[in-house]
Design goal:
By secondary structure, the chain is α/β, with parallel strands linked by helices. It is built from seven helices and eight strands. It folds into two domains: about 110 residues, Rossmann fold; about 70 residues, no CATH class. Helix content is about 35%, strand content about 15%.
């Protein structure tokens, strides 16, 4: 495996499998930057986002993150299918670090935004997939972080709800100080970002102007 992966996958002396996802990453992101991460699947985009989110600790070097971080990665994390919509709102908000008092103040607006009506007091297992996503999206976008992390642009629900979701996401991005988003969409990266980092095999291959980097990557 070590030979086949160029040394990225190997074994410790105790026989534990080790995967080296990122190598020699030297990256500084400044205030007001909108950074796009591109690269093929397995390039290290999601791993880098998780390092920035403080989910992963670097095994070498250090990651210095100044400012509160909000992540829109895995928006359904913490949703309990046996609990009601209201119960899930409070549980998911707690995971995001949102105070209970803030949730109580915004609860009616959040329920109205998610368009769940009487279903809000029913177990989530009775929801359709669209209703489930609307609930998860509504709660996840309650955050107002200085550093916003996204793994692809979120698309939830039907066309009508997506229009509301787009406005909410755009407002969230505008109010953040720094945005880091991983995406396979050339149009999104070129329109949304001020800088693009191209990852390949866990290393930075190119870092610069969106149009220039996208031209080299996408062709």
């Amino acid at each position: 495996m070590g030979l086949a992966s160029g040394g990225r996958i190997g074994l410790t002396e105790k026989g534990v499998t080790v995967v080296q996802s990122l190598t020699d990453i030297n990256l500084k992101i400044n205030s007001k930057e909108r950074v796009g991460l591109i690269g093929c699947n397995g390039a290290g985009k999601s791993t880098l986002l998780r390092v920035l989110a403080k989910v992963y600790e670097p095994t070498e070097g250090a990651a210095q993150i100044v400012g509160n971080v909000g992540s829109l990665i895995g928006i359904s994390l913490g949703i309990d299918s046996e609990a009601t919509g209201v119960e899930n709102i409070f549980m998911r908000a707690a995971l995001l670090g949102i105070p209970k008092k803030v949730v109580e103040e915004k609860l009616d607006d959040l329920i109205a935004f998610a368009e769940l009506d009487d279903f809000i007091n029913m177990p989530v297992r009775t929801y359709s997939s669209g209703m489930h996503m609307r609930l998860a999206f509504a709660v996840s976008t309650m955050i107002s972080p200085e550093i916003l992390l996204m793994d692809e642009w979120l698309s939830v629900g039907d066309k009508k709800f997506n229009e509301k979701a787009e406005k909410r996401l755009t407002s969230l991005i505008e109010n953040s100080n720094i945005l880091v988003i991983a995406s396979h969409s050339r149009a999104l990266i070129e329109n949304c970002c001020t800088r693009v980092v191209w990852l390949e095999n866990g290393r930075i291959k190119m870092d610069g102007d969106p149009k220039e980097v996208c031209r080299m990557y996408f062709g």
